[in-house]
Write a structure and sequence with these properties.
There is one protein chain. Helices cover 37% and strands 31% of the residues. With 118 residues, the protein is an alpha+beta fold. It has one domain. 3% of the residues are buried.
Length: 118
Amino acid sequence: MKGFWGRAALLAFAGLFTLACDSEPVQESTSEAYALRFDASQSDSTAIRIAEQAMQALGGPEAFATINYFSFRYVVQSDTGKIVDWRHDWDRAAHRYRLEGSLGNDHLLAYFNLNSQQ
């Protein structure tokens, strides 16, 4: 079960950032730039509410657009202990992404460029 959830988390985040990648950088200086890329009809209301809360916690779209570096950890715990622990580091200015975590006994570290998708 532990391996399944770890792989599921990795695939979810890889999919999220693959879909978010464009061949050209997108101007993110206004909230309208986000609106042009997001279709609310393709998501559920809970996901939209969580995304809006996260954006407000970051100071709103205008403040988020000025952030050059963003880092967070995605951790899932159960009664038996930690299931998933992935560190995400996003250099928005250079369009680089770093993902680090474990799948079973394997420690994984991935670097990729969001523009070139390499």
